[in-house]
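Re: duplicated header lines in exported structure tokens

Our pipeline writes sequence and tokens for each protein into one text file. With two proteins the header for the second block appears twice in some exports. Here is an export where it did not happen, for reference. First protein block:
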Amino acid sequence: MTKAINRAYNLLGVALVALHGFAFAPVFFLEDGLTHRLDEGLLFLLGIGAIAWYLRSDNKFSHSLVPMLLVAAALVIKLIAFIFLEAGDLADQGDEFGAIVLFALATGLLIWQYVNTKRLAEKSVQEKEPVAL
């Protein structure tokens, strides 16, 4: 049961980063300047790295901080783009706002899940029966 709980937590964080990275990868080719392309390129690479981490050995079954850190890194990338890279361009800054909200909420969710998945896994081991998520 512990492996299933950890796998769901890890998959959520990895999927959020990977889906965003791949969904907005085409924007990389549509942006006009290198500084405007930088955040989309970094998120695409972060998404690839997240998938590679998840598929590597038994990472998907471990109780790890990595999914939370991946989403937090995506949030930092978008904040840097919003504050520094796309400063002065209101249209581009507006495009970043949705992603900032997404990654801020996802970071909070993953922090909450990290704490609670450990508790659920411990409870499941103690009771020797499945715990409803």
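Second protein block, exported in the same file:
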Amino acid sequence: MKLSKWLLPDKINMKYLLLVVGLTISVTLLILAFGSFIYERSEVIPSSGVIVSIDLGVYWDSSCNSPVTSIDWRELHPNSSKTVTVYIRNEGTTSISLHMTTEKWNPESASNYISLTWNMENVVLQPNVVVAARLTLKVAYTIENIDVFNFQIRFSGSKVE
């Protein structure tokens, strides 16, 4: 007895069998590929919110008309300090805690002898509020080999919860 006769009865047409098997495979693949669409549904839910921004401005005047673009400390001497007042305004939409750092010292060694402090570190500032900030630059009495220097001052605010 031939294997094909044992697996397939005599009366089944081979073309018909291939067609049925092919259709079965195709339908199965379609169900697997697109079946999730049959059982999925969607719902639209309205959404709204407020964009919170952290932004601050640094000005020469309390009315915030003259932005500070640079500070010229002029002539300084060993073991001296100089104080400059600027005005910080919270121009964002949320309360912030104020911070100040220095960076990009030139020459790099200048930061070993010169320091900048201020009176507003960690002060909480509400939106649109202006505060006077005193920046104090101190020169150590041990400073040497530095005639000219420059650095950047970074003012920042972190959101207060």
